[in-house]
Amino acid sequence: MRLLIIIPALGCVFAMCLFKKPPSAENIIAPNASTQQNIVHRINAIRVPITREAVVSSLKSDGLMMFLQQLQGAKAGMDTAALKSQCRAYLVGFKQLPHPAHSWSAFLHDLFASCIDNEFAAEIVAMALLGQNVLDEEDLPMVLDVRPINIDNAATHRCRWQAMLFIHALSIVFPTAVVNGHSELVLPFLDDSSSQVRYTAFTALYPNQSASKFLAFSDFYGNLAHSEQKLLAEKIAENYPAHEAAQILKTLVNQHKVQILGAFCKIAQRDHSAIELLLYAEFDIFTSEQHSAVNEALASRSRTTTMLELSNEGILRQQLLNAYFVSGAGENAQVLNLSVVEWIARLDNNPLIKQQAIDFLLSISQEEGEAIANSIMGEKDFIIKHF
Amino acid sequence: MKKSTHLVPLLIGAFCAPLAAATLLQSPGSTPPAGKCPDMGVQMVDATFTPTQMAACEFGFLHYEGFGLDLTWEDPVCPLSVIWEPAYSSVVAKPNMTVKHVDNSHARMFEFVCDKDEEVCRHSASHELPGFYPFYIELPCVY
Questions:
Q1: How large is the ipTM?
Q2: Greatest mean pLDDT range, A198-202, A366-370, B9-13
């Protein structure tokens, strides 16, 4: 019944459009009778009501022009959330309309052009663009036009949203280019001056890299900024089988001394046995090899150097212990096997790690953990070496 | 519904450590150590947060403030746990410089629950994690 009302209503709307000057000569081309029907059909096929309404509204009035004008400058009382929704509706809706009744590419160019040196517009468009696969490799020159002067330190250059828009747009264009067989357009960006751009190009070019091949990119990983190292580690933690991901991350930490706790936590929450296995392996390998290294560090006259060496020596175990802790807390807490932590607390030669394992046992909020910790600390030969 | 980290719009951070670091780096009042110069300086790594469990309540617009942390969540997804890692010093090669250890700080885990009656994502608990994040300052070497 509702459709019976909507379809004639839309027909009237477009009939009116024929007699009315279009809001933007650049953006809207007057349709003929057959394309009108096509448009009505396409609009009705848009499933999301808010998108459908926004598209209809933009065609029957000068809504689109008003929207583009609003992007030109922030004014008091402007509802940015509404503008983001409107922009998202346009991006989704116009893409679905048949060309040439509405010029999608002219709209896109107007939209991106309004973001050049314009933080307000860039915020609206960047957020509206999130997750919308509406660009392809042909849009790359248009996207490059909105590249701000600085991306990795955008906040200090007051172009944070322009940088975000640029990266969001690239993260749509690059994978599409690769899927369409144009990887050559993306490859040069692996050497870009911006770590965020390099990361975006890498994830587009190598989305399903096998674990063995991934390690060939270890140097590339080492040259990323810490924020992108974290993102890539989290991607690995989410996309690879848990035990495989754990092995890759272990190698990256050992090679680059990087803090990627969030990634280890993601693995632990998927399958905490992967972290448990690494803790066992760490314990077996390091307790036999670490003795002289730790003693040498402790004998050092400089407290700073000692701290530095002990920290570097324990950077992997520290993250594994934390991730193990996290998997045993919260709504989806898993039952932890505290014996491996007990071994570390009892036998690890690195006083920082030993202390961490004791702290872990005390803070795990389980009677068993507290009992083990108290028992270890009560032993006559228990000493945490000072440094 | 799982979301990758980069889709999470904003962390408006209010972190004390980077400010302290900026003040302390090359503090003019510090006494430079004597002896062989290790040619090491520091680079501050920003504090970060990582949602490790998302989902469950899809209405969870969130604003959480506490422990020097100010989180704003625009997506209608509730993060059930967030790991916050404090800013820390990464030691890097730097000619004629040496480093001095000042302090360690710790990561924290923040837990949230879905409050279906209020239709919000509500903070429920937080834990300090045992792992330490070292904080160094750098000083010029004196020969």
A1: 0.70
A2: A198-202
Q: Regarding predicted confidence, which is higher, A37 or A328?
A: A328
Structure tokens at A190: 């692996």
The token duo for A292 is 């002289």
Q: How do strand B97-115 and strand B78-85 relate by DSSP bridges? A: antiparallel
Domain boundaries, chain B: 5-140
Residues A164-204 pLDDT 10s: 999 999 999 999 999 999 999 999 999 999 999 999 999 99
The least confident of A79-88, A130-139, A281-290, B76-85 is A281-290
> How many A/B residue pairs have CB atoms within 8 Å?
108
DSSP string, B105-124: EEEEEEEEEEETTTTEEEEE
Q: Please, are residues B85 and A259 in contact by the beta-carbon 8 Å criterion? A: yes
The secondary structure of residue B33, as a DSSP letter, is P
Q: What is the DSSP string of A331-359?
A: TT-----HHHHHHHHHH-S-HHHHHHHHH
Residue A10, pLDDT > 70, answer no
For residue B90, pLDDT over 60 is answered with yes
Interface test with A, best of B2, B3, B52 (most A CBs within 10 A): B52
User: Alpha helices of A210-337 — where are they, by DSSP H?
Assistant: 211-214, 218-222, 226-239, 242-256, 261-270, 272-299, 303-327
Which residues 19-58 of B have a C-beta within 8 angstroms of A? 33, 38, 45-46, 48, 50, 52-53
CB A70 within 8 A of CB A58: no
Are B138 and B94 in contact by the 8 Å Cβ rule? The answer is yes
Residue A201 Cα distances to A136, A308, B7, B135, angstroms: 14, 34, 17, 33
d(CA A192, CA A198): 6
Give the amino acid at A318: Q
A100 within 8 A of A107, measured Cβ to Cβ: no
Number of H helices, E strands in chain B: 1, 9
CB < 8 Å to B81, chain A: 326, 329-330
pTM attached to this predicted model:
0.73
Residues 6+ apart with CB under 8 A from B120: B59, B60, B61, B62
A226/B contact by beta carbon, under 8 A: yes
The per-residue pLDDT for range A313-330, each reduced to its tens digit, is 888 988 999 999 888 877
What is the pLDDT, as a whole number, of residue A68?
82
Residue A141: cis peptide before it, omega within 30 degrees of 0: no
